[in-house]
Structures are given as structure tokens and as C-alpha cells.
Specification:
By secondary structure, this protein is an alpha+beta fold. 15% of the residues lie in helices and 30% in strands. Strands 1, 2, 3, 4, 5, 6, 7, 8 and 9 form a 9-stranded antiparallel β-sheet that branches. The chain starts with a helix and ends with a helix. It binds zinc ion. The site of zinc ion (ZN) has 4 residues, from loops.
Length: 171
């Protein structure tokens, strides 16, 4: 038991150092996308189908366009979801989870270590994006909720990706 605790502590420490290593790099998660590829009002749009609020940003691109990891991180989910279709969840810096959904195909494996800009898969229409224009649904979840600022409790568990996307997509 004691050995297990030591082991888990070591793993956590290594991951924490790895994820927080400087410099913090942020890459546009769809190759070639810019500010005109998504709406400034995409995040928290309401009403949004069966999802209530829209918890991410839809970045539109041709089917097959490479989807890139926005940050460094570790793949903690890689599978098929009813709404998200082919989806990948990457645990990145500051205890944030980057969610990439509706992929045409995923090219990563569970627990892969990703660098910023590394390929995750391609833009598609899987899950509830079927029949809609191809796009990446990209969301940032927070493991630690915001302590203040948002009236809606559920919104505290999401980070608005728009400012970082805007910085990355200035071209
Ligand atoms: Zn979406």
C-alpha cells in the first residue's frame, strides 16, 4: 500500500512538472483556421439542441483538415460518444481538459503525451454533427471551478476558449 502511494505521488509530481513546464504554448486546434473560422458568440450560446448552453466553440473547416493539440498534455479519453462522435480529451496545463469532438478519425491513443501542435485527428461530422457542416467542437473544462464571477454554477467548470483562439488565430 505504502509503495503504491509513493508511486502515485511520484507520477502526479512528474505529470505536474511536465504539464506546467514553460513556455506555455497555445496552438490553433484546427490547422489553418483563423478568426473567421468560428463565431465570437459560439461559447455558451443558448439554447443549443439538447445541450442547454453550448459549452465550446465550433471551428469550421473542410472535412479532413488536421486537428492539432492546442497545448501539451496527456490523452485521457479517446473513444466514441453519442453527442461528441469520435472524441478526444486531453489533460493539459492548469488542470484543464481540452475536448476535441466530431472528429472524422482520431490518430492518438490513450495516455499519449502530446506536444502543442501535434496531430490528434481530422475534422469531421461524427456524433450529433452528422448532416451539419464539418467542424471541430472544442471545449476547455476546468477540474477546479472558478471561485467567483459566474452566477451559473455549471459555467464555472468551463473556460471560454475564445480569447486564446483569437490570439492564436490573428492571421
Ligand atoms: Zn459545438
Amino acid at each position: 500500500m505504502r509503495k503504491l502511494i509513493y508511486f502515485l505521488t511520484l507520477i502526479t509530481l512528474v505529470l505536474t512538472i511536465y504539464l506546467h513546464a514553460d513556455p506555455y504554448e497555445y496552438v490553433m486546434p484546427v490547422k489553418g483556421a483563423n478568426r473567421s473560422s468560428y463565431s465570437q458568440r459560439s461559447f455558451w450560446a443558448y439554447p443549443w439542441g439538447t445541450s442547454g448552453h453550448h459549452k465550446g466553440v465550433d471551428i469550421f473547416a473542410k472535412k479532413g483538415t488536421p486537428v492539432l493539440s492546442a497545448t501539451r498534455g496527456i490523452v485521457v479519453f479517446n473513444g466514441v460518444l453519442s453527442k461528441g462522435g469520435n472524441a478526444v480529451l486531453v489533460f493539459g496545463p492548469w488542470f484543464r481538459q481540452h475536448y476535441y469532438a466530431h472528429l472524422d478519425n482520431s490518430e492518438v491513443g490513450l495516455f499519449d503525451f502530446l506536444s502543442p501542435g501535434e496531430r490528434i485527428g481530422t475534422v469531421g461530422t461524427t456524433g450529433n454533427a452528422k448532416g451539419k457542416p464539418p467542424h471541430l467542437h472544442y471545449a476547455i473544462g476546468r477540474l477546479i471551478p472558478k471561485l467567483e464571477g459566474e452566477k451559473e454554477w455549471s459555467k464555472r467548470f468551463y473556460q471560454d476558449p475564445t480569447p486564446e483562439l483569437n490570439r492564436a488565430g490573428r492571421n
